[in-house]
Amino acid sequence: MRRTVLMGSTLLVLSALLGAACQGHSGTGVAGESAGRDVLRFTAIPDQTSTELEEKFQPLARFLSEELGVPVEYVPARDYQASVEMFKNGDVDLAWFGGLTGVQARHAVPGAAAIAQGASDPHYFSYFIANRDSGVEPGDDFPTAIAKLHFTFGSPSSTSGRLMPEYFIRQATGESPQEFFEHPVGFSGSHDKTAELVASGRYQAGVLNYRVYDRRVQEGTTDPEVVRVIWKTPTFADYNWTAHPGLRRFGDDFIERTQRALISIDDPALLSALPRESLIAASNDDFEGIREVAEQLNMLR
Predict the structure, then answer these.
(1) What is the DSSP code (8-state) at residue 160?
(2) Is there a single domain that holds both residue 97 and residue 182?
(3) pLDDT of residue 15
(4) One domain, residues 226 and 144
(5) Given this model, what pLDDT does residue 3 score?
(6) What is the pTM for the complete model shown?
(7) What is the pLDDT of residue 96?
(8) Number of domains the chain is built from
(9) Which of 23, 170, 173, 291 lies in disulfide reach of 103, CB 3.0 to 4.6 Å?
């Protein structure tokens, strides 16, 4: 009888241990959910090389963790829309969006708020660029001569590499890009790639944000004599940090604390991932113009 009791007790203990292990490893287990919700996760649109972004965002993650008193992780996004989907699904709590991806994310998540932007972001602009062999000369007016060229945008969801350039094309010509260009337009996927494709001659012209072009020229990775700026667009609002309402789980004032932490940053190393010289407060109203253009062009998904 003693042997039977011992065997029964052993089975009960093993059963309990197995049950706990299954619960701990399950994606829907309470323990797993609690652990995940204890971490603040943020992402960023991959408008630069993904490996470089991951390396640059790690110091920012450590800074925010120290300032806010919670674990903070950077989660890389595969592409622009992936960053929006992660935000919509609650997989990330905070995101460095472009103007368009920001309004798309906030449109999909009631209560989401733009909380910070670069000091230069209210007055952002793009460069239309062309290979020197294209024959298109720089000018102050929209370069209608690019209609005959092979042209590429950046990401389909980029504010400065697609949304606003398309808006300016329509404003200047009265036509959509599909109607205006003689050849099908391309989508490079990123600003850096646009510069590279135009330099190689695979595309004769393209559009990208001015910061990436200026950085590449400064670094020597783009030759301004080969890839020439042919037109500078009017200004528009662009990049922003957007907070998910789920951040309130860390405290009723946590979104405000996160905003204060971001705009307090004065270390160039922390800001280099964006890259920005400083951050200022932002609100959803700052991007109302972008929202209206996105709605007009059927890009507010």
Answers:
(1) I
(2) no
(3) 41
(4) yes
(5) 42
(6) 0.82
(7) 97
(8) 2
(9) 291
Give me the pLDDT at residue 48, please. Answer: 64
Low-confidence ranges of the chain (pLDDT < 50): 1-35
Q: Do 73 and 96 fall into the same domain? A: yes
Quote the pLDDT of residue 33: 39
CA dist., res. 98 & res. 164, Å (int): 12
pLDDT at 258: 98
Three-class DSSP category at 18? helix
- Statement to judge: residues 102 and 136 lie in one domain: no
Q: Are residues 221 and 80 in the same domain?
A: no
> 108 and 246: one domain?
yes
For the chain, how big is the Rg over CA atoms in Å? Answer: 24
Question: Residue 268 CB: number of other CB atoms within 10 A?
Answer: 11
What's 115's domain CATH number? 3.40.190.10
Does 18 map to a domain?
Answer: no
pLDDT at 117: 98
In the β-sheet with 279-281, what is the strand arrangement from edge to edge? 72-74, 40-44, 94-97, 240-243, 113-118, 279-281
Q: What angle do CA 257, 258, 261 make, to 5 degrees?
A: 85
Range of the domain at 219: 125-232
